[in-house]
Specification:
Layout lengths: L2 H11 L5 H6 L2 E10 L8 E11 L2 E10 L7 E10 L9 E8 L2 H5 L7 H4 L2 E2 L9 E11 L12 E10 L5 E13 L1
Antiparallel strand pairs: 1-9, 2-3, 3-7, 4-5, 4-8, 6-7, 8-9
């Protein structure tokens, strides 16, 4: 039987009506929100004027990052992951996991990360050590297919990222980003 006939068979005749075919589609993350955390607007690092578009599995993000003083230390990132049943049911959110990453400056500018194309669209260049100033990102891309293979489908995710000085242990900034895994 030709391959296209098998695909039609799976889609139309299995009792789950094509859900297997949907599971085989590539996945990506769709970012819905990216902002400074409430109560952190006066931090040393804040995100402003964010615009997000999603097209062909790619998130296009424009934003400004304000750094109020030069940061002379490496950064550790503390991620707080919450999952919700859907974007419309935010009252269903529950804490999922915390993730800590030390020495973030060491991986920030790696050319092979999902955020690498985004960072290349920054003026002036966004790199450690972070210097005081306003950094503008215009139509930076974030390819969410890199995280689409993780077993996190079926949830709406709210992630809070705290940027903390490795030596001083002070909070330098906090951003929220919300999104979900979608079929590409």
């Amino acid at each position: 039987m030709a391959a296209w006939k098998w695909i039609l068979f799976i889609y139309y005749f299995l009792p789950i009506n094509g859900q297997i075919l949907n599971m085989m589609k590539p996945k990506t993350i769709r970012v819905h929100k990216f902002s400074t955390c409430p109560g952190h607007e006066k931090d040393l690092l804040v995100v402003k004027n964010v615009q997000i578009a999603f097209s062909n599995r790619i998130n296009l993000i424009s934003a400004q990052v304000l750094i109020r003083e030069t940061l002379h230390e490496d950064i550790k990132i503390k991620l707080v992951l919450n999952r919700c049943k859907s974007r419309e049911a935010l009252d269903s959110c529950e804490k999922y996991q915390n993730i800590n990453m030390n020495h973030f400056c060491g991986i920030l500018n790696d050319d092979n990360k999902p955020w690498s194309p985004f960072l290349k669209m920054c003026d002036p260049p966004f790199a450690c050590p972070f210097k005081k100033g306003v950094y503008s990102f215009r139509n930076g891309t974030f390819d969410g297919s890199a995280v689409g293979h993780l077993p996190v489908s079926g949830w709406y995710w709210i992630v809070t990222a705290f940027m903390v000085g490795e030596k001083s242990d002070r909070t330098l900034g906090c951003v929220n980003f919300d999104g979900q895994i979608v079929s590409a």
